[in-house]
Amino acid sequence: MLLNILYAILLILLLTTVYVVVRTILFQRGQGSVKSFTAVPVDEAEIAHHLATAVRCPTAPLDDTGTPDPEAFRQLHQLLAETYPLVHQQLEREVVNGYSLLYTWHGRDPKLEPVMLMAHQDVVSAPPEGWTHPPFAGEIADGFIWGRGTLDIKNQLIGIMEAAEILLRQGYQPERTILFGLGHDEETGGVNGCKVMGELLKERGIHLAGIVDEGGGIIEGMASGVRGPVALIGVSEKGYLTVEFTVKGTPGHSSTPPPQTAIGILAQAIARLENHPLPPRLRRLRSLYHGIGRAAPLYVQVAFANVWLFCPLLRRWLVPVPEMNASMRTTTAVTIIQGGIEDNTVPAEAKAIVNFRLLPGDTIADVLQHIKKVVKDERVQFSPVPGKFNEALPVSSHQTAVYAGLKQVIRQVFDNPPVAPFVMLGGTDCQHFVPVCDDIFRFTSLVMDESFRGLEHGIDERIPIAGMARMVIFYAQLMQVWGTKEMV
């Protein structure tokens, strides 16, 4: 009897091992060869000068609601017209809602669905303190172009325009119509720019075959356990939900406090939320590591090929890493708390603001239900802040020709790095085009290492001159690939 039990255990172990090995073999994949291509000729110094000049147009909003500076945008639009004459002679240009720009490069076959390349013209504000070079001086020094917007995201704006001008100079005309969508208020939600542009396309009955906007990039250190650079393409964006929590209490003198003050009740609720986050969804990372393939160590490939078996180990490994934790769960962040104005007075009310970033698959209703279940206190009232919520965006397939074409161009231009899909942790203007496009991707064509951390929206924002030139090559090649009927 005991021998039969041992045989059964051994058989189970053998079958499990075989199953794990087979799944790992199927999960593994190499990059394979990549098609050769001829890069368009670029002038690094000229491109750097053009971006520097664009930086000198201070297109930061005038207030928190995103009111544009008319003079700054007038300067930028004039600069684009003067710097890229062929674009403005041969492409159709529309001004949308005063400041956003929509360019249409008509293709030879109007029956093909258009594609759209996106960037935004606006930048965040930049107090001058602490900068090596003034934020809106647009200086070129030490191999970099310096200033606000060089990374976020006038580099893409100039990269798109430069690439189009070069191709037009060569006499190129796409088979498929190409649009350039250049919003003016992305940093404050895009509601007056790309939202209006998306509605305009929908009214015209235009459905796009593909979109690429800002997002991932050639990044090192983003995927835990993977050495070397990996090209990450955003296939979705997390949702956004800001919730206000309110507790009303009994005001009075601090010498005779109630058993629990409003602040104490609220603090307990907040502590419960932080101690009981929404569950991680490891399978959301499977496509990322599958795309990375053999660039990941064998033990990582084995684990992600068999999440059903190694789930507890993966959680222990990945949850402590902030970027990985945020990539596989809806996150909870307490960002504002208010209550009391005097040290000897018990306040009548305490409030807190908590921001949730929703993983695709979790809904706003799910999060609100989670809050109710975790807090379990009717004294704590909570509700979404008006205008501060949106569901996670649909996940675009990485099995389509649109994705394959983008992946091919990345491999061609950036020396064949592993390419993988991931979910964007932040938001972009892409959200406004979901009704008119199924294949929406987010990729910033730049190699970024640890030295770039904190530069976007930070002090000393800058981009390498050589990196900016390669961005132009990338966009020119993408236009020629996506501009075909096959898109690969």
Question: What is the fold's blueprint, element by element?
Answer:
Elements: H1 2-27, H2 44-55, H3 70-83, H4 85-90, E1 92-96, E2 100-105, E3 115-120, E4 140-141, E5 144-146, H5 154-169, E6 178-183, H6 194-203, E7 210-220, E8 229-237, E9 239-248, E10 252-253, H7 262-275, H8 286-292, H9 298-305, H10 307-318, H11 322-327, E11 331-339, E12 345-346, E13 349-358, H12 364-375, E14 380-390, H13 401-413, E15 419-424, E16 440-448, E17 462-464, H14 465-482
Parallel strand pairs: 3-6, 3-7, 7-16, 8-15
Antiparallel strand pairs: 1-2, 2-6, 4-5, 5-17, 7-8, 9-13, 9-14, 10-12, 11-13
Task: List its traits.
Aminopeptidase, four-stranded antiparallel β-sheet, 23% strand, eight-stranded mixed β-sheet, 2 domains, globular, 488 residues, 14 helices, Alpha-Beta Plaits, alpha+beta, 36% helix
Mean pLDDT: 93
- In total, how many domains does the architecture comprise? 2
CATH homologous superfamily identity of the largest domain: Zn peptidases
Reported by name, the CATH topology of the largest domain is Aminopeptidase
Structure explained in plain terms:
This protein is of the alpha+beta class and 488 residues long. It folds into 2 domains: 44-236 and 393-482, Zn peptidases (Aminopeptidase); 239-278 and 330-390, 2-Layer Sandwich (Alpha-Beta Plaits). It is 36% helix and 23% strand. The chain has helices at residues 2-27, 44-55, 70-83, 85-90, 154-169, 194-203, 262-275, 286-292, 298-305, 307-318, 322-327, 364-375, 401-413, 465-482, and strands spanning 92-96, 100-105, 115-120, 140-141, 144-146, 178-183, 210-220, 229-237, 239-248, 252-253, 331-339, 345-346, 349-358, 380-390, 419-424, 440-448, 462-464. The strands form 4 sheets. Strands 1, 2, 3, 6, 7, 8, 15 and 16 form an 8-stranded mixed β-sheet that branches. The chain has a 4-stranded antiparallel β-sheet with strand order 11-13-9-14. Helix 2 (44-55) crosses helix 5, helix 2 crosses helix 14 and helix 13 packs antiparallel against helix 14.
